[in-house]
Amino acid sequence: MTLIVIFFPFVSFFLRGRILTGILCLVLQITLIGWIPAAIWGVISLQNARANKRNKELIKAIKSKT
Q: If you placed Cys at 25, which of 10, 42, 49, 61 could pair as Cys (CB 3.0 to 4.6 Å)?
C-alpha cells in the first residue's frame, strides 16, 4: 500500500473511501510541482489511518478486560 501511496497518492484516498480528498489530491498531483506534496500527504494520511486503527483496537481490548 505504501508504494501505491508514493506513486499514486490519490488512489490510496479512493481505496480508503475518502473520495473528495482523493479528488483534491489528484488535482494537486496533476501539477509536476504538486506531486511531491501529494505523495507526502498520502504517506502521512496512511500512517495516521493505521495509527487510528491500532488505537481503536487497543481501546477495545482494554474495555473488554474490565
A: 10
- On whether the CB atoms of residues 42 and 13 are closer than 8 A, the answer is yes
- In tens, the pLDDT along 1-45 reads 788 888 888 898 998 888 999 999 999 888 878 888 988 999 999
Determine how many CB atoms are found less than 10 A away from the CB of residue 43: 15
Which DSSP string do the residues of 5-31 spell out, in sequence order?
HHH-HHHHHHHTT-HHHHHHHHHHHHS
* Sequence-ordered list of residues with C-beta below 8 angstroms from that of 26, at least 6 positions apart, any chain: 10
